[in-house]
């Protein structure tokens, strides 16, 4: 499947700590959040998926509400410039910190953003084709080694000069962001200190057509 995410987290504290506590999924709250974010649309619940699958296709939606943390995954979130996220996703934050994480291995693209009190703190979008697509705010500590060239995408010992537009591979930084912000990885070193994302259930919803055929 490759490493893919397009998800939001609304956190009252440290998302990694909350997830490590094995929180219980609140199904009623998850359904209410779905209705709040996607009004006027009809969905039916499907079999649960997990945090490892926070990249639903088409109009499918994943939602998980836990004490102190809410998670939403939808392809509508996969935008090149995270700072331009639809305002409705921020309006419901109610004082919580909002995290956006997007990673798509097919095109080696990674983006993330953080909002606090409704204002962005950090927004970054990087891909091999365009280099830095967006960069706003101060770089987070977990980014430092990557920007410093500690993990180059191209072997520096190669004879051919590198024209790669970034000092790192976007997916490597994307995995580092997952670990630093949420305490897990998808395809990196999933050691014993890291959370297993498959242990966190998310409710899955599929759209229901309004049309009836007579």
TrEMBL record:
It comes from the Bacteria. InterPro entries: DUF6928. This is Uncharacterized protein. It comes from Pseudoduganella guangdongensis.
């Amino acid at each position: 499947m490759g490493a893919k995410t397009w998800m939001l987290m609304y956190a009252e504290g440290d998302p990694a700590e909350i997830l490590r506590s094995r929180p219980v999924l609140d199904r009623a709250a998850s359904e209410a959040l779905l209705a709040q974010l996607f009004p006027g649309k009809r969905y039916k619940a499907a079999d649960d998926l997990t945090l490892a699958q926070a990249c639903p296709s088409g109009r499918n939606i994943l939602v998980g509400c836990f004490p102190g943390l809410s998670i939403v995954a939808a392809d509508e979130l996969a935008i090149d410039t995270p700072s331009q996220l639809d305002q409705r996703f921020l309006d419901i934050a109610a004082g919580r910190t909002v995290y956006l994480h997007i990673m798509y291995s097919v095109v080696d693209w990674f983006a993330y953003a953080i909002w606090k009190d409704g204002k962005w703190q950090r927004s970054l979008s990087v891909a091999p084709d365009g280099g830095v697509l967006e960069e706003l705010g101060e770089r987070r500590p977990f980014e430092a080694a990557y920007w410093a060239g500690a993990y180059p995408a191209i072997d520096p010992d190669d004879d051919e000069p590198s024209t790669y537009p970034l000092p790192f591979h976007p997916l490597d930084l994307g995995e580092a962001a997952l670990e630093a912000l949420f305490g897990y990885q998808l395809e990196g070193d999933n050691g014993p200190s890291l959370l297993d994302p498959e242990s966190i259930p998310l409710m899955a919803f599929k759209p229901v057509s309004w049309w009836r055929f007579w």
